[in-house]
Amino acid sequence: MDFTSLEIYDIDSAKKIVDKVISSEDGVPQYKVHYFEKIKKQLQVHTEGKIFSKVINVFKNEEQESTNFVVDTYESVTKGSIWRGIDNIARIFNNTGFNITGDKNTIQALSDANFFGDYIEDFISVSTAKDPNTVQVWQKRKDGTWESEFIETEFIKIINEHEIAYIDVENSDYTIEVDKTYLGSVNSQYDDINRRVTKSYFEGVKYKFGDNIKIIYINNFQYIEIVKKGKEAEVIIENFKTPLKHPYTCTGVQEIAEGVYDSAVAPFIPFGNHALIQHRTYRSVEALFGYPRMSEVELPCENCVRGMENCEVSESYPSGLKPCSKCSGTGHVSLQSTFKIYKRKLFPDNPELNANVKPVEFFTPDSAILEYNAKAWKETLQMGEDAIYIQQRVETGNVESAKSREKQLESMYSWLGRISNVIYGNIQDAINNYCAITGSGVATVEKPMSFAIMSELEAFDYLNKIVITDAPIFIKTSHIENFLNKYISKTSAVIKIVDVLKRVDPFVFYTQGDLQALSDSGVINDTDWRIHAYAFPLLMQMYTRNPELLDLEYEAIERQLLAVVDSKIKPKAIGMSSDPNDPTTKLRGSVGGLYTMIQVAKAVSEGAYDLDAAVALIVDRFGLTEEEARKQLGTPNVQIPTAV
User: Fold this and answer.
1) Which of 113-127, 132-146, 277-291, 302-316 has the lowest mean pLDDT?
2) Would you say residue 398 has pLDDT above 60?
3) Which is more confidently placed, 39 or 579?
4) Hey, what long-range contacts does 415-424 have (CB within 8 A, 24 or more apart)?
């Protein structure tokens, strides 16, 4: 449709929109209707647990009774898996946050309306899990403000590039009906199955609207509300100050045809479908091979002849014969007593019946086919989970390699990057429409370069794995920076904690072995080592006591942390020299000096070195007073031998 050919409606001409909606004139193209329904049905099989038609109609030679059993006992084994993937997307994008720049009043208005949180929530619950071709529009509230709404395809009656008309369900009269042709067949066999399906799962729901409905029509220039009450219609028209580029925003993430979108979790569906068919096969095999079979010997019934016994002639039994009351007309009786005891009878005139035959015998079917089918559907389901990057649980005893974990994170990052390109582009389109409708100043949302793929605990654990590797420090530092930039949200506390530690502790990414090597070569002293040891635990202690600490500027946090660290590492010994040129000060300030003190104290404690001699050595070499030296060395742990 040509942008300039759009009709500008007044109150009288706007009433024609009602006729278009009811008659579907210039409505939704048929190819889109077909795709919309197909995509929704395929997705909801897994997200809502609706019955998958192929578990019924691909088993054409199956008895009706068996098919009815499958329908009555059907459960979707894929629902939990696909929702793990959907929940991951929700967690990642909710925690990643939004960086908005531009007009402050616009940003505040969008924030007050909770636009960003609601958009992600609707994107997850509707576009991702229910109807990928849902569109976003701005709908006017009764108080005159505007709110974001997601409109499902079922309620869209007209849609093209420059206009949309839909039914406002919340303000319309309707009833819900069940579509009895949900499985796509109308013969007697499937009619019975449809009755079972709709009874169990309320499938094929359709809305039937009455005479009182509210229609919203939006084009590039106008917003129109039409309230139809019987044959009458009330019309409200608002003309936009600035024309909209598009009157609505698509919310799907993968366009598969013009104006037709798939869900973010669509890669799961082929594997999920196959897993459902395999699980259905497994249940059939389980019924055949999952339980022992019993073979029981029966004896001829002595009370009848071929299942019939004599009786009085009557209208019911004109021949004078009726089914045997003992064997119910079978002509045979079980050896089993009321108490499940098998009693054998001997027949002298019929030796064959006296043969040494077990009265009952159990046969165990081969379980190999059962084990294969039990394993097959689970393996297929796992491939579906891998397709949407669900992080698999690591079984006890199996340690996931860092390289494998890194590859999985890289793949997940690329997947989320593709999704975010569309999501944040759509969000920007929605913001642009809001600004045009309300005449507000421009606001821009920035697409994130990192995602909150990991929780803070996961992030610290992964960072620790990187730090303890033997790789050169410049490689580890680059690896850590890359990790933080991709997999941790910029709003996460982890980012600021690591940045503060880098400012305070230049050796933050060094291992204990790295530090020991630097100490032995005289590159670092005891103060450097103590800062490295104290900085992180003290910062976390400060953050725990005051969660608002990280809201401060970096310089303020750094000053507070250094003050606390300094209080832990300042020398406290009485009479100690603070002159940096004093050799005793240099010895005390080294890791080697601390090690020497410990070894002397150990020798005194074990009785290998005289206490007075040790005190004199410490006073001379470390510059302590005699009293302080004795405190440092402690009391010798020497057993005095008892005279005999």
Assistant:
1) 277-291
2) no
3) 39
4) 415/388, 415/389, 416/89, 416/92, 416/451, 416/453, 418/253, 419/89, 419/253, 419/264, 420/93, 420/447, 420/448, 420/451, 421/447, 422/252, 422/253, 422/254, 423/93, 423/123, 423/253, 424/448
